[in-house]
Amino acid sequence: MKPLKSSNRRPTVLLLVLAAVFFCVILISIQSSLFSGNSTVRISKEDLSVLYDFQSRVQQCVANKGLGLTAQIIDHCKLVLKFPEGTNSTWYNAQFKVFESLEYRYDVCEAILLWEQYRNMTTVLTREYLDARPDGWLDYAAKRIAQLGADKCYNSTLCEEHLNLILPSKAPFYPHQFQRCAVVGNSGDLLKTEFGQEIDERDAVFRENEAPVNGKYAKYVGLKRDFRLVVRGAARNMIPILDGSDDEVLIIKSVTHRDFNARIKEIPNPVYLFQGIVLRRGAKGTGMKSIELALSMCDIVDIYGFTVDPGYTEWTRYFSTPRKGHNPLQGRAYYQLLECLGVIRIHSPMRAERKRDWSDVPSKEVINNAHSVALRLKRNQAGQPYEPGPFGSCKVWGTVRSEGSGPISGSPDMSEKRRNSNYSKWELLPFENLRKEAQEHYIQMGGVSLYKMDGNKLDDLVCVKHAMSKDAQSE
Asked: Is residue 461 left, alpha or beta, with left meaning phi > 0 and alpha meaning psi from -120 to 50?
């Protein structure tokens, strides 16, 4: 066989050179795309490496734990989660006249910043938040009161009368207050596996709306009752929902209402108002808000009853007939992303007989490194100085002079049953009664409480500085 002539090898060499040039152009364009306006700050190769390493770990986690889902990396921050071919897309969006998609694009940098932020925040409306927020009492308070008859609180006394019953002076719950928590959804998949005992072993259990807790369903959903997040419609039925459970904390998701107040005055339970953050994400509904609530109090959040198996085709509830209104595939993809970001741990009938471990999830060190880079990148894109730590997003600051100042939620016309109950136990919880991790976090934060402003931005926190108690100072 005769050797190839050099002229025949030239096209191959040329192709290799062009490929190398093309790769360099792509790399430069990626770095150049990180410019913001006239900013000349670009992401370093080291930071790019950190983000791509994190993305690859998330990709591997999805491959191992996603029950058929796969993750395709688009760039240093964006990836696409895809369902396997043949997945039955049955949820139909009547508004846009399309069936649910089989792939979803996510920004991992935004997601990790958002959810790590929740670990430092409070998600209950307080008096100190309204006091610190600009026009908090005039504008924001009015949005949280149904049947006010005005779009602003022109009559501040009237607005306080509506809110006082469920408005603690300061945040009643602390970040890291509990070690491990269970968020129990309402999916009919709960009936496929007996998770009840496991759920009851958690330090705190979060439930939703009218979900029953009784002997009939005990082996599936447990009996422990600590927190219940309810929408406006469910809040109308709060007395039968609570069913004599005097210590279960009821948190109303949207607004207070004078009908609600009449019922609250008669029950012994702690009742608060969810702060009402509005954020666009891949899963919606009370279940998502329950996760937000739990993450603001718990180190580890286990979720049950969120229908994550591939065979799910319609919204079912363990205690009633199927109903429409949720998009199962998009929700399942987003929850899977959150698990591989280290935010939650999914418990599903598809995994019930498997050894459940989370070694595939990126380590805390890897997550922290990616978070630092994502935060620096976000600041650079916005033309802002990089400020590490939890206070870089504080746009509004407030100060509380005395840790014990301010009224306990309640009203003079409460029933004797409520007045003599332990409804305010969280507001009076002594610092020394908190678990060690919660005390240490509070001290590290310098006694600052973080609240989210309403809207769709990661930034714009309201931050309230407290004068730390003697017990906290002595730690």
From this structure: beta
pLDDT in tens, 432-473: 999 999 999 999 999 999 998 876 566 789 999 998 766 566
| DSSP secondary structure string for all residues of 21-89 | HHHHHHHHHHHHTT--TT------HHHHHHHHHHHHHHHHHHHHHSTT-EEEE-SSSEEEEEPPTT---
Could you count the other beta carbons within 10 Å of the beta carbon of residue 418?
A: 19
Instruction: Specify the DSSP class assigned to residue 317.
Output: B
DSSP state of 430: -
Q: Starting at the edge strand that comes first in sequence, how are the strands of the sheet with 103-107 ordered?
A: 70-73, 78-82, 103-107
- Per-residue model confidence as pLDDT tens digits over 323-375: 665 667 888 899 999 999 999 999 988 776 666 788 999 999 999 999 999 99
Could you tell me which residues come within 8 angstroms of residue 121 by beta carbon, excluding any fewer than 6 positions away? 175, 296, 450, 451, 452, 461
Burial class (CB in 10 A: 0-12, 13-18, 19+), 374: buried
Which two structure tokens, joined as six digits, stand for 31? 């770095």
Q: Where are the beta strands (DSSP E) in 185-256?
A: 204-208, 227-230, 249-252
Burial of 45 (0-12, 13-18, 19+ CB in 10 A): exposed
| Unique residue bearing structure tokens 């199927």 | 322
What is the Cα–Cα distance from 275 to 287, expressed in whole angstroms?
15
β strands within 379-419, DSSP E: 394-400
* Cβ pair 330, 150 in contact under 8 A: no
Distance CA 84, CA 410 (A): 53
**Look-up of token digits 């402003």:** 453
Torsion of CA 418, 205, 293, 66, to 10 degrees: -160
Q: How many Cβ atoms are within 10 Å of 139's Cβ, its own excluded?
A: 13
- Is residue 169 within 8 A of residue 128, CB to CB? The reply is yes
**Element counts in the chain: helices (H) and strands (E):** 17, 15
DSSP states of 247-303 = TPEEEESS-B-HHHHHHHTT--S-EEEB-------S--SHHHHHHHHHHTTEEEEEE
For the purposes of burial, counting CB atoms within 10 Å of the CB of 360, is it exposed (0-12), middle (13-18) or buried (19 or more)? middle
